[in-house]
Amino acid sequence: MRPIASLLCLVSAALLAACSSTPAERIAKNQAAFDQYPAAVQQKIRAGEVEVGFSPEMVRLALGEPARQLSRQAAGGTAEVWVYHRNGPRFSFGVGVGGAVGGHTSAGVGVSTSTGGYDPEEKMRVEFRDGKVSAVEYVKR
């Protein structure tokens, strides 16, 4: 069972690395769009920061894909809200051993990930109205 557990740990680490990216990596994949932005916007994106007036494309370059997307209804209309977490998807690892009738034993190993639902690691929400960031809310802990 030990080789299987080691293999699953390595696979989990590889999946976690593949899910995360940096602003520099996202910029490199979208260099032509990035080059069109003013220097002040480029500086914010490189730093992984967003501000009111950013387009969804600018936010994706700075922060990556949101963990969740919500719609908010208010008197002023509908807003789209992107939720970001402190960390990327989290992986867990578990091993179980159990007995069975007749003296047989069994073992199992599993890997899981969570990318949705309530998360105490939420760090910020970015609200869009009319295709532009209208508010940025940081969660303080």
Number of helices: 5
Secondary structure: helix percent: 25-40%
The total beta strand count reads: 6
Shape: extended
Quaternary class = single chain
Strand adjacency order, main sheet: 1-2-5-6
User: How confident is the prediction overall: mean pLDDT?
Assistant: 79
In whole angstroms, the N-to-C terminal distance is 41 Å
- Biggest sheet, open or closed, and with what strands and sense? 4 strands, antiparallel
Rg from alpha-carbon coordinates: 21 Å
Strand content: 35-45%
Which consecutive residue ranges, at least 5 long each, have pLDDT under 50? 11-18
Q: Would you tell me the structural class of the helices and strands?
A: alpha+beta
**How would you spell out the order of helices and strands?**
HHHHHEEEEEE
Domains (count) = 1
